[in-house]
Amino acid sequence: EDLGMKHRLWVYSGRRGVHCWVCDDAVRKWSPALRAAAVEYLTLVKVSAWGTGAPTGYPPASPLLGRVRTGGLGSAVFAISLDRRPQHREPLQGEFPKKRDSVQRWELLKGRMERTRRVVGTGRSAACYADWEIMLQYCFPRLDINVSKGMEHLLKSPFSVHPKTGRISVPLDLQRLDQFDPFAVPTISSLCHELDAAVDDGEQEDVGETEPKRRARDYKKTSLAPYVRVFEQFVEEMECARRGELLRRSGKRQAG
């Protein structure tokens, strides 16, 4: 949103990642330098050589960071030590299993940080970033700069099959994201079984039906159908916006 990108399709990779396909005409024409700059703007955690991350700096004048700090990241489960000291870590490890959920564990951790600050006499103004640094460390996504900036980088298309899990790379419905289960995503094997089951049900094919029509009908019998609808809705919205832009440009030319 900060960079003016409107047509964004979010796609589950089929394993651990998420792809964002940005389909705005202007963005597709960006140079590698512009693409790298966009990724740099969106990168709030730098990963060090030993695999841990650290925030890139304290809050810049950025609308992005302001939203991140108020974005409700505090429900994550953190395997964390305070200052990497056993006297802080061990009590937390003993109390975490007693809490009902990750929200309660996060409140426990924040309370311990507050008490630690009071004991050592550290003012909130000097240590006020500890909680959001933890949230960024464990919750903010790590972006693949090479995929984002490389004009010739290989990309895995939506609905392709992940070679290691067999799961389909499916579009995500952001309105129902809290209901998305990556382990319930259809695999190539499950889709084959679903198609076989539909045939075994005794459905008769129309002998005059063309192959494209049969394929379009067959996918609707599978668990892939809801994800195809998400993709079709995205394409329809993008086409509508493009027609509106063409009409706007046409009107300007006529007025000129």
From TrEMBL:
SUPFAM superfamilies: Prim-pol domain
GO molecular function: DNA-directed RNA polymerase activity
Cited InterPro entries: DNA_primase_S
Gene3D superfamilies xrefs: DNA primase, PRIM domain (3.90.920.10)
Record's catalysed reaction(s): ssDNA + n NTP = ssDNA/pppN(pN)n-1 hybrid + (n-1) diphosphate
One of the protein's GO biological processes: DNA replication, synthesis of primer
Family: Belongs to the eukaryotic-type primase small subunit family.
PANTHER family in the record: DNA PRIMASE SMALL SUBUNIT
Protein name: DNA primase AEP
Species this protein is from: Ibidorhyncha struthersii
Lineage: Eukaryota, Metazoa, Chordata, Craniata, Vertebrata
Gene that this sequence comes from: Prim1
